Amino acid sequence: MKFQKICVIGLGYIGLPTASTFAAHGINVLGVDISQRIIDTLNKGEIHIHEPGLHEEVKKAIQSGNFKAATKPEEADAFIIAVPTPFQENKFGEYNGMTYKLADMRAVISAAESIVPFLRKGNLVVLESTSPPRTTVDLVTPILARSGLEAGRDFHLAYSPERVLPGQIMRELIENARVIGGVTPESAQVGRDLYSIFVKGQIVQTDATTAEMVKLMENTYRDVNIAIANEFSRLANKFGVDVWEAISIANLHPRVKILNPGPGVGGHCISVDPWFFVEAAPALTPLIYHARQVNDAQPHFVVETVKRALGSLEGKKIAALGLAYKPDVDDLRESPANEVVHLLQHEGALVKAWEPFKPDANLPGIHMSATFEDAIKDADALLLLVNHTEFAKLNPKEIAQKTKARILIDTVKGWNYEAWEKAGFTLLRLGVGK
Ligand code: SAJ
Predict the structure, then answer these.
(1) pTM over 0.85
(2) 7: annotated active-site residue
(3) Which of 10, 178, 331, 393 lies 20 to 30 Å from 356 when distance is taken between CA atoms?
């Protein structure tokens, strides 16, 4: 099938890069978002999120006339839904002593509803939002049926998850393998026609529910494997071992690939998606459930490590370096660093936080320093929570001039013992019991 015009609903971390990439490939794209502020920003050629390469792509797309943003959809050949699927704020599921989070599908529901008046015979609708298994078939299909058209017979419907890594979205969008799950094989084929416009990686066709599971399996696999690394960090601490050394030796085994421990798992994907499985089938997911518990509890282990370095935290001044959920991104969602700061404050510590990618972030209950210098100046200890390149590159001798602190706590293996110790610091690393 040929596509002249497509409508992308949701212009966030996934929708906007997708919309602008289609536009760059000559397709007429209407980007839709409920936020008038986002629409105004985009139509001026500006962007509201940080992602390397995205701003240039959006600017070009707007200038070429191929990309426009609006708050309502219009008729198009294809509709792509890329809206968030967060958790419900105050509602939890319960099963056999397990308390689990529930997906908030309202944005998917209203995005699907917004398409109904514009859906025509022969169109393609693709859901990209990460969703619990069977969402395409059980939730989206009946909503679209309100148009009087039937999915798989009158129009094509598919699920195609995004698997790009924040920080590398523009490249991975094109190069990654892509899975397209159709409600019928023909829907998957038409989905393939659409994404072949820019995808250079392998495109695999399957059914919609398999594609939904694939997406959740990938992030769950990673979460469970990070959980085991975090559990190893606690064991190493107990047994007087350096977990990083132990992992690097274990990974010499040809069939072992242990991931890195750290302050916990953040972001809007890996710390969220496993819950969609738990919600959908709590009786079948004890391992996935417990891995989530382990990772969510890791900030407590960071606090124990800080206490090992400083004793009582009452009145201690701590510079918390990095609040993003991972290195070199500005995304603070579900960041374990945020939780660490709150836990430290609960123990009486006086924390100044510094996040170079979002110095003016407004986080309730967290004091953000205006400069790095201000955060570290009077600190008793520097706590490294995210391995941003600029933290890894700090010059220990220069830092020794800028701070009173002589104690460093490194939760991400960002700093080198020798270099910092030579400059007069004592360095304690998470998961090192030696
Ligand atoms: N982390 C560790 N130890 C590790 C690796 C990661 O503690 O060894 C932590 C990070 O610090 C971070 C979190 O896990 O807090 C997640 O970071 P990440 O870089 O592993 O992944 P995300 O969440 O940025 O992106 C993931 C990717 N999924 C996989 O790698 C399987 C990406 O491909 C997906 O597109 C994305 O989720 C998504 O949107 O679902």
Answers:
(1) yes
(2) no
(3) 10
